[in-house]
Every structure is written in structure tokens, then in C-alpha cells.
Design brief:
The protein is of the alpha+beta class. It has twelve helices and 17 strands. The strands form four sheets. A six-stranded mixed beta sheet has the order 8-14-13-16-11-9, with no helix packed on it.
């Protein structure tokens, strides 16, 4: 049981590492492009940043490494495992991956504690919410409710705020205004900005980013990516909200934006109209630079995201493959240490004796008719619930039969042994992987070596018999 648990812990932590590397490499590609060619198309820039963030959640590289180690044999109709990364585990790995698992879980708990603490502070503020008293403000807001009936919009005032905020809670989108008087023009600017955040799913993407930061808390790049995502969401939202509006000009929107600031409102489940002053300056500079509102075509965005994923996944897959091979090397080293321990291949205490209980089918290999004493090598596929009889040889008391076998699937328990054809009795040892044993003949007679598969699936086995 502990072997299975540690195996899944190892695979889970490997998956986290591979996907964290994939997301980080995608962001590195984005940053390289920005440095070389600059950033002019902010809609496209936001789309590729979302695509890069998705790589932290979609286990592409891990699936490639995992599934590439399964092979299908069409003629024989079953799958085989070609790499120990999928199912191998050695005791030497237990303390390492156990400590990593505890460390990762501890980091997640600390992140959740901080997040819940900040969320609790926001909910305390929201207790001060009250209905908007101004009739003109309610009239303007009613227009937006009618334009976007599926958005479930609600408008409140809150005296603890310095800047308008939108919050998603309980499936509702609440737009919170500071306790101050807004003109109709100013209110439309605020509502355009916050409603654009809501209808384009910016709050959902921020919650997704929080989940990725929680799971990949050990990667400093994911925090930079999340902050980058928020900045581009605000930039795109400003461009949507300030360009070609009949109620106000871009200059008026910029003036209102410059007058707002609330550095304490940076929370993942909120979208403040204005947060830190440094970000405000950057947003205003971009709005001044952009003269016309032009949204990138969907097919261009899709092609760009596909190119980004292709470019970033090539080195990510190479990294994941190298990581899997390193673990397999560790597994081989652990298995070698175990195998190098002194073994008494003739230890009779390992042997079991019995009669045929009828639970398996007995079949004969092609060369069983040769009764001469000799060495033989076999490479066979043994079906489920089957005993494969190898050479039959006349033996004398005190002679030995040495059987060595190796099963490619280390999860299958099988037997190697000898059959006394005169008394129809069996002597065997049982195990997984590599088995070697020396059977000493107690009574002269006709003996056969055999390999027995008692599992519910076929197995590939190879080895030798020395009479």
C-alpha cells in the first residue's frame, strides 16, 4: 500500500514540475517577443498570456512522457509498459518524495491562509454595502442591466472604498461605488469599465490564476505571470471603455482614471477601477498612444496562441523527458543496489511444494521433446492463468536445475519451478521482475522446468534453464 501511495506522490510531483516548466517557458517566449518587437497589439498580448497560464493546468508534457511509455502489440492484443517511470518505485525514493510532498502541501496551506485572510478583509468591507440612493445613478445602471441581462449585475455604495470596484460573489457581479457623487458621464465611464471586466470573464481568469499560484507556489515566475495578466486585462479594458463612446471622450475618461487610486484593493476576486499609481501612469500612457480601437481577429489570435504553444512545448517536452529518464536512472540504481546484495540462489526455504490445483492451464513449449541434458534459452509470451512447460529431462538424485527468468512487467507476480512428471508434484518460488533459483533433485526421475503466470493478464518473459 505504501509503495502505491509513494508512486502516485512521485508522479503527481513530477507532473507539477513538468507543467510549471512548460508555463514558465511559454512566458519566457512572450517576454522575448516583447523585447524584440515591442507590444502594440494589446488584445493579442492578453490572449497569449492566457494561453501561457493554461499550460500550468493542462498536463501536456506529463501526458506525453507518461503515454509514450505504453506500447501496444496488435498481433497479441495487449499493452506493455516500456519504462519504469510509469510504475517503478524503490525504497530509496520514499524519504525524498515524502519530504517533497509534505513541503508542497505546507506551501499550499500557507498560500490558502494568506488568501483567506485577505478575502476576509474584503468581506468585512462589503458589510458596509448599501443601496444607491441617487435616482439618476439607478436609472443609468438599469440601462446596463437591460443590455446585459445574463451578467446578473448589482450596484451598491460603500463608504470604505476610494475607487469603484467589481466583485464576483455567489454567482452575482456587484459593482461597488465610493460614497461620493458621480455625474452621469462619470458613472457611465465607471460602469463601462467594470461591466467590460465582467462580460469578458476577467474575474474568472483571475480566480484561475489564483488557483495556479496556489498549486505552483514554488515557482516565482507564476506570480509575475499573474500580475502581468492583470495589467493587460486593465489595459484592454481601458481601450474598450475609452474608445468611440457617445457619452464621453477618451480625454475625459483619462482624467477620471487619474483621479482614482486605491492601493489596498489588489485582490484576485475584485477588479478596481484604479489601483496603484504606477499602474495608472502606464495605463494612461498606453491610452494616449493608441489612436483607434481595433480588435484583433479571432483567427489571428488562435494562430498566435498555437505558435506560442508549439514553440514553448518543444523544450518543455525535452525537459520532461530528461526528468523522467533521471528518475528511471535512479530506479535502476536502487534496483541494482538491491540485486547486488548476496543471494543464496539455492535457499530451499524459499521453495514451495504442491500438486496441480487446476487453477491454471498447462501448455508445452515447442521443444519439450528433447530429453537430453543441456542448457536452453527461452523468450516467450505466457497467457494469463497459464503454466508453460519447458524442456523435460531425466535427472538423478543430487542433480540441479538452475532457472533464471525476467518478466518485463514488474507488477506481475509469477512462478518458476520444476515438475516431477513421475509423481505429478511441483516445486516453485514466486516473485516479480527477475527470478533466479537452483532446484536440487531429491528423487531420480523425469523433470520439467516451467514458468507459471497466475495473473489475469499476459506477460512477456525471457530467461534460461541449465540442467
Amino acid at each position: 500500500m505504501i509503495w502505491i501511495k509513494m508512486l502516485w506522490i512521485r508522479l503527481f510531483l513530477s507532473c507539477l514540475l513538468f507543467e510549471s516548466a512548460a508555463g514558465s517557458l511559454a512566458w519566457a517566449v512572450i517576454m522575448c517577443r516583447k523585447r524584440l518587437w515591442g507590444e502594440n497589439d494589446y488584445f493579442f498580448a492578453l490572449a497569449v498570456r492566457k494561453a501561457a497560464l493554461l499550460l500550468y493546468a493542462v498536463p501536456v508534457t506529463f501526458a506525453y512522457v507518461y503515454l509514450s511509455r505504453f506500447g501496444f502489440r496488435p498481433l497479441k492484443g495487449y499493452y506493455v509498459i516500456k519504462g519504469e517511470f510509469v510504475s517503478g518505485m524503490v525504497p530509496g525514493m520514499y524519504p525524498f518524495f515524502g519530504a517533497l510532498g509534505i513541503l508542497w502541501a505546507g506551501g499550499v496551506l500557507i498560500f490558502l491562509y494568506r488568501y483567506i485572510s485577505r478575502s476576509t478583509a474584503l468581506y468585512r468591507r462589503m458589510r458596509e454595502n448599501r443601496e444607491v440612493c441617487c435616482k439618476d445613478s439607478r436609472k443609468v445602471f438599469l440601462e446596463y442591466q437591460e443590455r446585459f441581462p445574463n451578467a446578473r449585475l448589482f450596484l451598491y455604495e460603500n463608504r470604505t472604498l476610494c475607487s469603484p470596484v467589481s466583485v464576483r460573489r455567489g454567482g452575482k457581479h456587484m459593482i461597488l461605488l465610493p460614497d461620493k457623487t458621480y455625474t452621469e458621464k462619470e458613472l457611465r465611464m465607471v460602469l463601462e469599465h467594470e461591466v467590460n471586466h465582467i462580460i469578458f470573464g476577467d474575474l474568472r481568469w483571475r480566480m484561475f490564476g489564483v488557483a495556479m499560484m496556489c498549486v505552483h507556489w514554488f515557482n516565482p515566475v507564476v506570480y509575475r505571470q499573474f500580475r502581468d495578466l492583470v495589467r493587460y486585462q486593465e489595459t484592454v479594458c481601458d481601450l474598450r471603455s475609452s474608445m468611440e463612446k457617445p457619452w464621453y471622450t477618451k480625454k475625459e475618461y483619462t482624467v477620471l482614471l487619474a483621479a482614482q487610486a486605491d492601493p489596498d484593493l489588489y485582490l484576485p476576486q475584485t477588479s478596481a477601477f484604479a489601483e496603484k499609481k504606477n499602474d495608472l501612469i502606464r495605463r494612461i500612457e498606453i491610452m494616449v498612444k493608441v489612436k483607434e480601437f481595433e480588435r484583433t481577429k479571432n483567427r489571428v489570435i488562435a494562430a498566435g496562441c498555437a505558435c506560442l504553444l508549439g514553440i514553448s512545448l518543444i523544450p518543455s517536452v525535452a525537459f520532461a523527458s530528461a526528468g523522467a529518464k533521471l528518475q528511471e536512472t535512479w530506479l535502476h540504481a536502487g534496483e541494482t543496489e538491491i540485486e547486488d546484495e548476496p543471494q543464496n540462489w539455492g535457499d530451499e526455504s524459499l521453495e514451495e511444494h504442491g500438486m496441480d490445483d487446476g487453477s491454471v492451464t498447462e501448455i508445452y513449449a515447442s521443444d519439450t521433446g528433447n530429453t537430453n541434458k543441456r542448457s536452453s534459452v527461452f523468450v516467450e509470451t505466457v497467457s494469463k492463468k497459464t503454466r508453460l512447460i519447458l524442456n523435460t529431462v531425466q535427472m538423478s538424485k543430487g542433480d540441479t536445475i538452475i532457472i533464471s527468468a525476467k518478466c518485463s512487467d514488474k507488477n506481475i507476480t509469477y512462478r518458476i519451478g520444476i515438475k516431477n512428471n513421475d509423481t505429478n508434484t511441483y516445486t516453485w518460488i514466486e516473485g516479480e521482475g527477475d527470478l533466479t533459483h537452483t532446484f536440487t533433485i531429491k528423487t531420480s526421475g523425469s523433470y520439467s522446468a516451467y514458468v507459471e503466470n497466475r495473473s489475469s493478464q499476459s506477460m512477456d518473459v525471457e530467461g534460461s534453464v541449465i540442467y
